[in-house]
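ok trying again, last paste got cut off:
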Amino acid sequence: MRQQLASVLSLFGSLSTLICCALPSVLVVLGAGAVVASLVSALPWLVWVSYHKTWFFWVAGFLLAVNFMLVYRPQGKIACAVSGGNACEEARRWNKLLLRISIALYGFGVFMTYLALPLRQWLEP
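nice, full thing came through this time. structure:
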């Protein structure tokens, strides 16, 4: 149960970093600044989330680390072997898939927020 909760929380943490920071950055880079402006006017809480993006990234990173420890700990394989069910192995596979998706989303958010956009601003004359 803890493993599934950690997987879901890390996925939502990664999605929050994607929504607050990476998605608007991608839209601006692609020239869709009007879409970002309409998103901010329709969802004003995005400004607050974007202002506190560092906290969102730290919390999401912590949740991913906890999830990684829970998914890849050696006791998980032993527990599945003792319970002897296919449901345990199936749950482990789903947790690993959710963890990989979460890490990919988090990595994309970090890249767009802290690397791509500042690099673009630095390169512009």
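cool. The helical segments are 2-29, 33-42, 45-51, 53-71, 74-83, 86-123. The mean pLDDT is 76.
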